[in-house]
Write a structure and sequence with these properties.
alpha/beta, Calcineurin-like_PHP, single chain, Putative phosphohydrolase, Pantetheine_PDE, Purple Acid Phosphatase, chain A, domain 2
Amino acid sequence: MRIFALSDIHLDYEENRHWLADLSDTTYQADMLILAGDISDNLELVEWCFVTLKRKFLKVFFVPGNHELWVIRNKGMNSLEKFDALVQLARSNSISIDAYHHGGLSIVPFFGWYDYSFGFPNEELLQSWVDFNACRWPEGMNASGITNYFLQFNREATAVSNDVVISFSHFLPRIDVMPAQIPQRFRYIYPVLGSSLLDKQIRKIRSNRHIHLYGHSHVNRKVTIDNIEYMNNAFGYPSEGSITRKQLICIYSV
């Protein structure tokens, strides 16, 4: 059994839908896939993705990204209600959003958001970041409150102990997983990449080997920091071939 990783497949793009549909229906029947968010804000595309991947893999794991919580298409619904709808959609299609244990291996989802622990947004970010207009939160709920709302679902995950643990989130748990060579002009988006509180939760896990898969940044990377192996395998937008692999990667095998 192999464990594959993928995030940010953005199925609003036809090229990405074709790639997903063309994945073999036979090669991965004994394997598992971790899908770390950003399928689409369109619930019909999300369900199509779930149905398609469930047919190809033995088991599929998922956490929502920021795009799934956009409510532009969902009038009358706020982003927390959209999250609840996504949870129900995943469960009704047998997509796992809960911790899974198989002998000495555990696979553990972590929910999250960003709380500006990586920096405060400047005017350029406030004007350009789509979440600020596409998401809708209960009145008075700020970035810190949003993050803490999602982190509360991770309490049981932090108690996991096993020989090998693969945890995963859409959002970055620490900003130093970003490569040092990222040009300064692109770093204005760092405040909306994740939360250091997420890493504090992840580090409560006890294991001999800990792999953490994340998405969101669209910058593929593998780096070990303080004994945790951080990985990102974002499929990304069609134009991002230079920073994304455009393929599944196997991150562990049993």
